[in-house]
Amino acid sequence: MTPGIRPLIAGNWKMHGTLREAVQLAEALRDGVEGVDLLVCPPFPHLHAVAVALLGGRVAVGAQDCHAAQRGAHTGDVSAAMLRDAGATHVILGHSERRTNHGENDAAVLAKTEAALAAGLLPIICVGETEAERLAGLAESVVEKQLSGSVPYGFVTAGGIIAYEPVWAIGTGRTPTESDIAAIHAAIRRILVARFGPAARTTRLLYGGSVKPANAAAILALPEVDGALVGGASLVAADFLAIAGAVPR
Ligand code: PGA
């Protein structure tokens, strides 16, 4: 953890669950965990019902993507303002599954991030290397390029969040070593502070990729790791709460 930063544990529900299951999961999480910010990111059709179920609770709601335009002829897409209207406060952008399955590049992530900020949504920009890039010793330079291409001015002062998610660790049960996670987080902090100044010292840097109750305490204790972006384990209320409970305090 970075001293002075309030931790955030975010759940990315991806394309899982019925509406009923989403609301039940939200209800099980409602009371949250003392001293930790919690966020869940349901699929679009479940977002509003989840937001209603969480009203008055300790858990915020985010989306998993948004379009860069405010409105228009974009069949199948959703604007940042619509998400805000439906109850979202955050939006995940540039997740590797979006980059891979939908060809999103850094410029697209930048445009979406600007749209999110304009609509008053807090963006969580995902960055991270592939396995081939890590093996080639390129992890840090890949992350640096993603940050420089996708993080707009205004991001840091608005409270934007970065998630370091090595592509090869997502949904695989594999994680980088603790020293590799710490090294990339330190690099991200350095890069953001160099570009945005001291305000970036309080930017929240999340780790994502196979976080579960068994490894959460060790990962969350690392310097500059201010929380986690959790996929699979966020679909089980007890596991998600256990991860939040593993935040050092
Ligand atoms: P995982 O997913 O926890 O299932 O590895 C993380 C993510 O994709 O955000």
Secondary-structure map:
Blueprint: E1 8-12, H1 19-29, E2 37-41, H2 44-53, E3 59-63, H3 80-86, E4 90-93, H4 96-101, H5 106-118, E5 122-127, H6 131-135, H7 139-150, H8 155-158, E6 161-164, H9 178-196, E7 205-208, H10 213-220, E8 227-230, H11 237-245
Parallel strand pairs: 1-2, 1-8, 2-3, 3-4, 4-5, 5-6, 6-7, 7-8
Bound molecules: 2-phosphoglycolic acid.
Q: Helix count, per DSSP?
A: 11
Query: Considering the protein shown, what is the CATH homologous superfamily?
Result: Aldolase class I
Count the E strands: 8
Helix-strand pattern, N to C?
EHEHEHEHHEHHHEHEHEH
The global form is globular
Note down, in words, how this protein is organized:
This protein has a single domain (8-245), classed as TIM Barrel. It is built from eleven helices and eight strands. It has helices spanning 19-29, 44-53, 80-86, 96-101, 106-118, 131-135, 139-150, 155-158, 178-196, 213-220, 237-245, and strands at residues 8-12, 37-41, 59-63, 90-93, 122-127, 161-164, 205-208, 227-230. Strands 1-2-3-4-5-6-7-8 form an eight-stranded parallel beta barrel, surrounded by seven helices. It starts with 7 loop residues before the first strand and ends with a helix. The model has no long low-confidence stretch (mean pLDDT 97). The site of 2-phosphoglycolic acid has 13 residues, from β8. 2-phosphoglycolic acid is lined by residues 12, 165, 170-171, 208-211, 229-233.
